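Minutes, project check-in

Agenda point 3 was the complex the collaborators sent over. CS summarized: two entities, 393 residues total, and the question is how they sit relative to each other. Sequences were read into the notes so everyone works from the same version.
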Amino acid sequence: MNGEPLGSIFLNAVLINNFVLSAFLGICPFLGVSKKIDTAARMGAAVTFVMLVSSMCAYGVNIALAWIGAPYLQLISYIVIIASAVQLVEMFVRKFSPGLFRALGIFLPLITTNCAILGLALFQTSKNYNFVQSLVYALGAGAGFALAIVLMAGIREELELATVPHLLKGTAIVLVVAGILSLAFMGFAGLGA
Amino acid sequence: MTGDTTASAVLTRGFWRDNPVFVQVLGMCPVLAVTNTVENSLVMGLATSFVLVASAIIVSLTRRVIPRQVRIASYILIIATFVTMADYIIQAVSLEIHRALGAFISLIVVNCIILGRAEAFSSRNPVFKSVLDAVGMGIGFTFAIVALGTIRELLGSGTWMGWDVLGPSFEPWVIMVLPGGAFFVLGLLLFLVNVIGERR
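CS then shared the predicted structure for the full assembly.
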């Protein structure tokens, strides 16, 4: 068991070891879905939600796998769980909030291949978090992802107005901006214990 | 996936014209995360190529058996199986590298290059061609990731594969081994690829 306090787990996941900017997880949606602030915010919310659900499931699966003694099935069961969690979330959202469902559109199923989700499941296992710690970690990771993608979308909206050399346009300039953001987040490194 | 489907075109396409990293901008997470040294990059590139080729064979062999509705789920299961194998192989060969790469070996599962090739190529082409395509993409990915690793290790610690290249008087650019440096170098490489593309 890991005795880390909940507050520090949360802060750590949001700022110090931000999933996108310092652990490089979830880069694809970070580069792909960060053109507008509102789509970015919705993507962040959806990812956070899926993270919470799959974190709970991964915790359960881990106990089950330890019980049948088959650790080599870990990766395969995680990915199956995440795919089903995404499907579940999709059905749930469609039933209870058709508006949100339409707004999220294609992004919802794409969350399955977001490596931040699988990364979260793997990290919480390797860090030996208990159930509550895992949930807080998932919440922090989701919040960190949302924060990074919204910040990025804000900068990219401004970037539309700036004059960028045409050879740097597209992904290249976005990566440079991401590098500067990542440098800024390094300033949080002293926050933790 | 247009006209040119000769074997050599399929093989070489992945290296430059459709390079998975520089042109298609896929599979960014491992490209940025593990390229702080050349050794890590090389292992990552080889592991990804292994999974690419192995899953291309199986996906291509079973392309008439798997129903369309469940194909993505089946591909992910096939890929996850090979990634687990790669994970255990690396662990057996070198525990040190396994520790350095950490969760990123397992994360090969969600590397969009592999699922993308399975869906776009292996599921509609015979085995031989799928293997060629996978090998080409694997070489292209390894080339890109080692290029990034070379720049970051040379400037970040003055070494290449652990050998001291730039000598003792070289002051390492710490930024290069930090996350920010990964973004900068990749942005710069994409810029260079654009410049070369413009010249042609």
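Noted in discussion: Chain A has one domain: 6-184.
Follow-up: revisit at the next meeting once the mutant set is ready.
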